[in-house]
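User: structure tokens for this one?
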Amino acid sequence: MLEQQGALRTAGSGALVLGIETSCDETAAAVVRDGRDILSNVIASQVDLHRHYGGVVPEIASRKHIELIMPVIDLALKEAGIGPEEVDAIAVTYGPGLVGALLVGLSAAKAMALALGCSLIGINHIEGHIYANFLEHRQVEPPLVCLTVSGGHTDLLYIDEYGHYDILGRTRDDAAGEAFDKIARVLGLNYPGGPEIARLAVDGDPEAIDFPRGLMDADTYDFSFSGLKTAAINYIHTIKQRGADLPVADIAASLQAAIVDVLTSKTMTAAQAYGVKTVLLSGGVAANDSLRRHLRELAGMHGIKVYYPTRVLCTDNAAMIACAGYYRYRRGERSPWDLNAVPNLRLGEV
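Assistant:
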């Protein structure tokens, strides 16, 4: 479905960046002025298409991107009230993500940039999620600590300046969002599983089941959620084998509590160690109310402010890609015409 998110604030004059995002199952395009002002943000979601399969089917996603990419870009330009010739740069996600999906957006961006004679700027999808915060919170400036949590990534970063990332910790196995989704699938919940877990957790007891908290007390900022995932799946199978009713709400609440405890604890430890007064949340899991609430509570005890994007900017979108692209454009960075999709791209890699 095509969603017209519209402009979030009044824009001034300045550089216009067209953002394109096709890393997974959203076809998105947006126009952002001066890295902060969203003139348009159009998202064509494939969630209903993939729900039948319980997850994203890469081949189907790629074919749908091909069908939607140009209509989405055209609508983004129309909503922004500009012609393509007014675009100064095109920022596009080139990784990480599904290779076929990435290539659709990348091919469209290259063709347009070449035809229009404007700059091409490749953006790391995870970097885009971080920059979603700068779109909405103009007062936010480095240095800061950022927790980026999504279905495929869990990264804890120290950012001392725009575009420079010190990777403090990463997941050693499953990402937090991946753990949510996999356990939701075992519970028979609808796709995507993370929001379903959060919805059910509201009526559950977070202390009902003592799920493990991987690397919680270890002297590292790394994360590990595979043990939690295995423990939860084993618990569910044991209950089913007994023929008893599954306490779904309690499982959801206890699972969410275990993940949130680890994420917030390590984030606050890093914030205090690096002496920052600002913490950012980014990525799809940043929309989780429990994570937001617990991190705010912990940070508030130490005089640290927590910022996160609105829900539409937590999920995959092109405004965040355009924002990240603007800061690289401002620094004079450009991507070569042979820029290729890198499905396993990590933050900080080029």
